[in-house]
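Pipeline run #58 for the internal structure catalog. This entry was flagged by the ingest filter as a single-chain record with no existing model, so it goes straight to prediction. Upstream metadata was stripped on purpose; only the residue string is passed forward. Reviewer on rotation: M.T. Logging verbosity set to normal.
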Amino acid sequence: MDRRVKYTKKVIKDTFITLLEEKEIKKITVSELCSLADINRATFYRYYLDIFDLYDKIQNEFVGELKNIIIDNHDKNITISILVKKLLEALLNEKKLAKVIFNKKNNLLFMDDILDISYKYSRNKWLEKNPHLKERDIEYASVFLFNAALGVINYWIESGFDGDPEEVGNMIEQLTRYGIRKFIEE
């Protein structure tokens, strides 16, 4: 991709994320974005159909990066905390974008792809360890665990990325393995 195109798309993306920090997506206009980004509307429409297309492309690119972290590490014999740490570091590298995408006002359905991949790999590992597991039990366990982990990650983002990714990853792993017992019992 041409450097000028990369630069223009980055300016559009950065300006859009800044606007999303201030207002809902449905209240952002192409004219407003172009004015703030100091580009003309034709330039915007060269790359995007509308504001929602821009949002979808930014989100899909970001989710693709997160999915790649899971895919690249699934065969490695790594712990949950190490995988979560890598995901959290990716979120930390894109703080503004993570805050906008994980905002409660936005739909977290974008996480379905990541959860599906995580489910597939977890299911296979669980079945290796216990081939007698029922499919329904695997599904219930995965829904519980993945939503709990997503809740912790969401809280971490909402609280201003408070806590080191390794620390949060360890907490998610401990909660996954032992539940809250470890945190409430002495």
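catalog note: The mean pLDDT is 88.
catalog note: The chain has two domains: 1-48, 57-184.
status: ready for reviewer M.T.
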